[in-house]
């Protein structure tokens, strides 16, 4: 079964790394480079999973996008994995408050990403 994953990160290299890691799996990958694009993409495509960078430029950061997704009745069931280099207790708490389902700390290995994706999706 093909699953749709939305990757939102302002760094094209990291989006590419995540996309390449998921290649070969039963995934369709959609990309966004900021929070506004991520939220619009989530609403348009209704992904099965969102991999969301916390620190993004523009109007919405990852916490705000996550909170908006979880507040939307049509999207609240979509799991969100927050990706960040910030691993302080306050950062993790902010992710929990926003409704994140999992946290992935940068730098992470491709295997760690795949394990987290498959565990979150139950595949």
Automatic annotation (TrEMBL):
Q: Which domain of life is it from?
A: Bacteria
What InterPro entries is this protein classified in? Bact_response_regulator (IPR050595), CheY-like_superfamily (IPR011006), Sig_transdc_resp-reg_receiver (IPR001789)
Q: Which SUPFAM superfamilies match?
A: CheY-like (SSF52172)
Protein name in UniProt: Two-component system response regulator
Per its UniProt record, what PANTHER family does this chain match? RESPONSE REGULATORY DOMAIN-CONTAINING PROTEIN (PTHR44591:SF3), STRESS RESPONSE REGULATOR PROTEIN 1 (PTHR44591)
Q: Which GO terms describe its biological process?
A: phosphorelay signal transduction system
UniProtKB keywords:
Phosphoprotein
Start and end residues of each Response regulatory domain:
4-121
Pfam families on file: Response_reg
């Amino acid at each position: 079964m093909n699953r749709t994953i939305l990757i939102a990160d302002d760094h094209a290299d990291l989006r590419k790394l995540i996309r390449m890691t998921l290649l070969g799996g039963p995934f369709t990958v959609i990309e966004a480079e900021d929070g506004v694009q991520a939220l619009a993409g989530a609403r348009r495509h209704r992904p099965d999973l969102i991999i969301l960078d916390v620190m993004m430029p523009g109007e919405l950061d990852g916490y705000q996008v996550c909170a908006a997704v979880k507040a939307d009745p049509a999207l609240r069931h979509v799991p969100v994995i927050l990706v960040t280099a910030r691993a302080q207790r306050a950062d993790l708490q902010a992710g929990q408050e926003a409704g994140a389902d999992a946290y992935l700390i940068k730098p992470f290995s491709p295997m760690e990403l795949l394990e987290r994706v498959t565990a979150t999706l139950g595949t």
